[in-house]
Every structure is written in C-alpha cells, then in structure tokens.
Design goal:
This protein is of the alpha+beta class and 382 residues long. The chain is built from twelve helices and ten strands. It is globular, with a radius of gyration of 21 Å. It binds flavin-adenine dinucleotide (FAD).
Length: 382
Amino acid sequence: MDFSLSNEQKLIREQIIAFAEKELNSKAAERDKDQLFPRELWLKAGEQKLTGLTVPSLFGGGNMDPFSAIIALEALGYSCTDGGLNFAICAHFLAGVSPLLHFGNNAQKEKYLSSVSTGKSIMVNCMTENTSGSDAFHLKTSAKRYKDGFIIDGSKTFASNGPVADTILIYTLTDENKGFLGGITAFILDMKTEGISIGNSLEKMGLRSCNMCELFFDNVFVSESDILGQIGGGTTVFNYSMEWERTGMAACQIGSMQRLLEQSIKYAQTRIISNESIGKKQAVSHRIANMKMQLEAGRLLTYKAANGLNTGRENTLNASIAKLFVSEAYTAAAMEAVTIHGGNGYTSSYPIERALRDAIGSTIYSGTSDIQRNIISSWLGL
Ligand SMILES: Cc1cc2nc3c(=O)[nH]c(=O)nc-3n(C[C@H](O)[C@H](O)[C@H](O)COP(=O)(O)OP(=O)(O)OC[C@H]3O[C@@H](n4cnc5c(N)ncnc54)[C@H](O)[C@@H]3O)c2cc1C
C-alpha cells in the first residue's frame, strides 16, 4: 500500500498546522485547569472546516475524502496542544457528523448538516449508560411507540460535549427481544427538545476542556422523521461511527505522539547533566528510539484503517487494531516523555504531564483496550 501524501493532502496538513499553532494554543493550560470549553476557538476551527471535514461544500464542509480527513486530524493532534479541544472536535465530527452524513435522509441533512459541519452547532453522541458501558448495546434507555412517533425515557452518561451541545445522536432500545440484532434505534434531535435535561458535569483527569456530563430523557417525544437510518438499524449506525471514531482518534493521537517525540528529542539535546546532553545517555536515547518506532508502526496501522473507511464491514477489524495499538503506544509515549523530562516533566510548567493525562483516556473511550482485544479475537474465530 502506498500512503504517500498528495500535494493537496500536504497542503491540508500545512494549513491546519499553521492555523492551530497561531490560533488554538494560547491559554491551553488554563483551560485544562479550569475545565473551560473554548467556544470561540471551536468556531474558528469550524471556519477551517475541522468540524465537517468530509461534508460536501454545499453544506459548508471541507469536502474531503476519508483519507484526507484523517491526515487533517493527524495535523490537528500534532499542532494543537489543547487535547480537550482536539477531543471535542473529534467526538463531534467522528461520532456525530460522520454518521449523520452517511445515514441522514435529505430532510435531516437540510435541518442539521450545515450548522454542525460549520461548527455553529455542536454534536453529542449518546451511547453509554451507567449499566451498559463496555456491553454497549445492553441499553435501558428506550424509545416506545406513541401515536405517530416514540417516547424516549432513560439516561446517558460520559456524554462528551454534552454540556455545550445543540444536537444529539442518541441510541435507544426499541425492541427488547431483538436487542442489538435489530432492537436498537438511533435518533437525531435538537437538544432543546422538551424533556431533555443536562446533569452535573463530570470532572476528568485529562481532556478537561472538553466538557462531559450525564443527560436525562424524561418522556421525550420524537417522531419517525427523527430516526437516523432505519428503525432497528442503530447497531449499524453505531458500528459505522465507531469505525470512524477509532480511526480518526488514532490519527489525532499519532499527531500528538509526533509532537511528544519532537519535544523529547529537543529536551534530550539541550538538558546537560554531567557535562553532556542526556540524549547521549543510552537509557534516554533508547527511550526516544522506541517512541519513534511505535509512532511509525501506529501511523501505518492508522493509514491502513483510513484507507478502508467507507468500504465495508471488513475494515472494522483494521480500525480496532489501529485504535488498540495507537492508544496504548500514545499512553506509553506520554509516560516516556515525562520520564525523559525528569522533574520538569512532572510539573505543570511543562505541557508533558497534561499530555499524559490526556493520553490515558484513549485506552478507555471508543471501547476499552480489553474490548478491542475481544473484537480482534472474535474476527479470528475465537
Ligand atoms: C474521555 C471519555 C470520553 C467518553 N465519551 C463518550 C461519549 O461521548 N459518548 C458515549 O456514549 N460514551 C463516552 N465514553 C464512555 C466510554 O465509551 C466508556 O467509558 C467505555 O466504553 C467503557 O465503559 P465503562 O466506563 O462503563 O467501563 P466498564 O464497562 O465498567 O469496564 C470496566 C473495566 O472492565 C473491563 N471489561 C468490561 N467488560 C469486559 C469484557 N467483556 N471483556 C473484557 N474486559 C471487560 C473494561 O475493559 C474495563 O477495564 C467516554 C469515556 C471516556 C473515558
């Protein structure tokens, strides 16, 4: 497989790096400390099409093919040091906008696509519940037939972007007997729909400028026209969104790994101990060699998954492999970077400890490492 970038993809990369370094990084540490979501920066990212990378220009999006979108997210992860903002953009685009673009009917696209792709509206993806988690489809939140529509009752948790969202993609149980084989239905709705309420914010160790909360659904009336995809087709919508989320988040993470590698090399070259740079000490240089090796391997796995996006079910395996490998390599790389930076790496004067806190979540969201191993082994017939 040839993954060399076209001139257009190189330009996308350069433009995003120039934009993020100039516009997105100031006060990232303060936002992390105070858990502040930067809506004004979000809107600037929207102007750069980051919130709607693959959406056709007609709807104000970036009109990119899937592989170019993945290159754009890698560039964002590399150049934007606000991991929470990167995560908020990824969650919105990968698990919200992408399934809307793929499964939405004309009326839904007319209603939502322009505002979400330009960042004027923010999307939240609601799958996880207190009693489901890794067993994602074991939902209690139900949508029961009522008159010419449905009534949704239940609650969702760990909703990234939930406190600031305008548009919800929610997965509900519509047929208990069928469960994930035809009993799950996805709906897209306005956050202002009567009966939806926002619970307390959930404070996190990392990705803190991306706000998260519980959401409650009490007697929420939705119509047939709010179904995303088919009735009973929620599993297909969710699996599609996870293929995008696992691949796109991995891309953003390899961008961040590249930044951590460069920061570690620079520090190792300039930190002098016993009259020589620490980079001359094999314990340090071998750590950096490992970071480089893991980055290159992770990038190839991510590009392989990106190459198969929108090509069918076979690619779910590639996306899980990339997600598992990159999230674990990213967390290990952030830990190595802290070690290389010594005491400085542990202080918040350097951005390294924040990178480690941001990285740890990657082995949990979009399905934990254990769940990725379950998916991979089931593809191997186990
Ligand atoms: C930063 C962040 C952002 C998130 N954003 C969203 C969001 O926007 N929308 C959303 O819907 N969800 C979101 N989530 C939720 C996320 O998808 C879940 O946290 C994740 O799927 C794990 O579920 P859980 O937390 O309930 O853990 P549990 O399912 O309780 O798992 C606990 C532990 O048991 C292990 N385990 C459980 N079952 C198995 C099994 N069958 N085999 C092996 N090991 C198992 C897990 O691997 C884990 O180590 C987010 C989570 C995080 C951390």
